[in-house]
Amino acid sequence: MAEDPWRDELERLLRRVERIEQLLEVPPEPPPPEVASPQPARPSATPPPEVGARERAKPSVAPPPEGAPPQPPQRPAAPPLAPPTEPVPARPPAIAPSPIVTPPTEAEQAPRGLEFFFGAKLAAWAAVPLIVIAAAFLIKQGIDSGWWGQMAESTRCLLIAGFGLVLLIGGEIALRRISRAASVSLFGAGLGVLYLDAFATFFYFTLLSREGAFALMAVVALLGFAITLRASFTTIGVLSLIGGYLTPLLLWDGGGRDLELLSYLTVLLAIGLGLSAVAPRPFRLLRYIALASQITLGLIWLIEYGQRLWIMAVIFMSIWWSMLLTETVYAALRRQSRAGNPIALLIATAAYVTAGCWIIGASAPGGPDWLGLFTAAIGVLGAAAALQFGPGLDGLRQKPRVAMDVLALALWAQFGVLIAVAIALQFDGYGQSLSWLAVAVASIEIGRRLPSRGVDVFGLTIGLLALVRIALLDPHIAVLQNELAAVGGISINGWSILALLAIAATHTAAHRLREGTNAFWRIMPGVAAAIGVLFWLSLCYERCEGLWATGGWLIGCAALLAGRRFGQRQGYLPLALFMLAAIAAKWLIIDAASPRMAEQWTATGVPLWNWQSAMALATALLTWWASRIMRDRAAAQAAGIGAQIILACGAVFLLIALSFELDRALMQVAATSQSLAIYSPALLRMLALTALWGIGALVIMQLSRGRDLPVVFGTGWVLLALAALAWLGFDTMYWRIMEGTLPATVVLNLQFAVGVLLAALLWSAIRLWRRQPDDPEALGRPTDNIVVALILLALVGLWLGSLEIDRFFGETMATNAGLSVYWALYGVFLVVVGFARRAAAARYAGLALLAITVAKVLFIDLATVERLWRVVSFLASGLLLVGTSLLYTKLSPRILASAHGRGFTAEDAESTEGDRR
């Protein structure tokens, strides 16, 4: 029948399902209800016509007439073009299973769980090293105790080999009849014993020549290879390698058979790498175990015997590294171990280069001259492998996609690192730094032309190493410390030339580095340029004295500002601003302030005509230049404000510089002038600086007015206000309280002169503020600043008269009376000005001063002043109060009424808070 093949296939599948359900202990489902049909059920997965997949898949076909018998299924002439749209039913019609049941497989019979792990797997793993170690100790004990004395050496080896073969046969029997897990311990122990026997054959018994012993070890290695592949179990290979590597640790005593030992280690490494290459899925772990064991045992041998046998050591290390390189390339070509290949190779290369350089440097003739060539050769071999098997130079341009691309990229990185190490080993002292700088710049240029970010990273890394060496190690090299030339305060030696080359290399790298889209590569040109700037600052500070270093910094800042058009990516303008801040700090702290604090400092030199003031002026000019550049390039409000802040800082710095020059001039003049001898040096200095800062503040306000510089204008106003407060506080009040009245001519003295100057400056500032438009960037509104200026002006006037009255009368009772009269007069003056200028603040200040005067007369003058002066004080104060009252009576109705726009009543006079400004 045509449907017999379908029935046979379905019966086979059903038997398999029943067997799986029995193993999983799945309860059987009740059979579906039988559907009446004139024909017996067929093993077809097609449901009845009314719910069949064919009808749902093809709704255009009309169903058969109701009650008509179903048609037998027909085999399609061709396979369907697409899978059915409906899934096959979960259970077909029940069919009696065949009585023939296939026995369950080993995977189906093996129990699972923690008990199985400890009882089967862990016990098998632990048994192998125990058996191998026991056999090793048995052989060693037999040799030491003479147990083998009556037995030929060949018989001994055969007995040991027979014991190993018995273990292997037992493992094969267990594999066939029990399970793979049961055979692990037997196979592993058998291989370990055979390794032991092979090594003892040529090491202790000397039955075979070196070639024969090597062949015997190769046979054992092949046998272990075959058994591991036969079992397809990672544990066998792992335990075999461990047992093999433990053998020389337990038995070898350095009897001069170094070639045999190294050959033995080579065979073991070949086994591990061979298993990893042939069957990577179960045996990839063997690569790492063999690599770690090889490095450990090789290092032990190198420490003990490597210097004596350095040629043999280099040859075998080269063989081992080549074997691992071959295995990793093979795995990468098969698209395996994408991450493990480069890791294993880099570890092996690091161990190979480290050990090789140590051995060659300590033992080879010529010493370190061979180290660079050796390291470079390893890097070149890796690069050749990347070119041959990888994507070539394209691997540096594109993102790695497959395992070979990743390995090739690691080989290129290894090549770069080894070239850098080779340079460090081949050259001595500053030659390393020069070579690294050249390699860094060349790598960045190559990365730009390929293009390749990997090469860029290498160039930046090797360049950073060069800069670190130049900064930390090269200054201590004797040959670089020798002075080559001296010009003024500049000393040139070998290190300064090397530092200049480093600066040129960093700026070249910053310009040639490729532009990037992410944040890291966008900032890297600026970082490289910043490192160059730091090197320039360090170089000037190290090799120049005093103001010569400041001059060098100024030259570097000017160069950055001049090259800003070519260094936009490098951020030359921000770097120039940073240098300006450093220059200003150095000039203030080191060049100007520190010498003046020394006891032996004297005011020498012509004021304003010396190098110190010249450097300050140059700094101010560079600040002005930087602010102009920022204003020209300002595309946002914040940038314009920043330019104004920089200009304001430059103006303040120039005032500080002029202050130092004024101090120089004052000390020179005071030393020869008799008229200034009455002034203390501190007071003289403070009065002069107050005058200077007041004049400079007004100059700043005048120069910035009408130039769209509200921040600079406001800075000048703040400086003027601070100068006024300094005169009111320290120059007058503090000095009067702490030192007493200055014995100077009334009115004709510096305190009075500076006060009058500040009053004039404040009045000029008021006039400037009245012409200044409202600007949100300014420091306060003009009207508010005018009020502050008027208050300061009033206080200055009050202080001027009070100080001179105190100076005129001295420590007498007339002083209090004179102060009371002056304060009352001044209060009336403020009230008059308030009425004249319609300034409520002035009127309020005058009334407040009159109230203070009345309180002083009642509580101080009445108790301390003599009767005559008491009469003067009371009479003058009373008359002034009367005059004030008359003034308010006559003028307030008209002035205050016009201010409020209506009639002014007595209630208004009591409740009003002031006129509109």
How does the SSE layout of this entry go?
Elements: H1 4-24, H2 53-57, H3 106-109, H4 114-145, H5 153-177, H6 180-203, H7 210-231, H8 234-251, H9 258-278, H10 280-306, H11 310-333, H12 340-363, H13 369-389, H14 394-397, H15 403-426, H16 430-449, H17 453-472, H18 478-481, E1 483-487, E2 490-493, H19 494-512, H20 519-543, H21 547-562, H22 572-597, H23 611-633, H24 637-670, H25 681-704, H26 710-739, H27 750-771, H28 782-809, H29 814-836, H30 840-864, H31 867-900, H32 906-911
Antiparallel strand pairs: 1-2
Helix pairs in contact: 4-6, 4-8, 5-6, 6-7, 6-8, 7-8, 7-9, 8-9, 8-10, 9-10, 9-11, 10-11, 10-12, 11-12, 11-15, 12-13, 12-15, 13-15, 15-16, 15-17, 16-17, 16-19, 17-19, 19-20, 20-21, 21-22, 21-23, 22-23, 22-24, 23-24, 24-25, 24-26, 25-26, 25-27, 26-27, 26-28, 27-28, 28-29, 29-30, 29-31, ...
Would you mind describing this structure in some detail?
There is one protein chain. With 917 residues, this protein is mainly alpha-helical. The protein has a domain at 127-390. The chain is built from 32 helices and two strands. It has helices at 4-24, 53-57, 106-109, 114-145, 153-177, 180-203, 210-231, 234-251, 258-278, 280-306, 310-333, 340-363, 369-389, 394-397, 403-426, 430-449, 453-472, 478-481, 494-512, 519-543, 547-562, 572-597, 611-633, 637-670, 681-704, 710-739, 750-771, 782-809, 814-836, 840-864, 867-900, 906-911; strands at 483-487, 490-493. It has a two-stranded antiparallel ribbon. α23 packs antiparallel against α24 (637-670). It is elongated, with a radius of gyration of 50 Å. Residues 34-112 and 897-917 have low confidence and may be disordered.
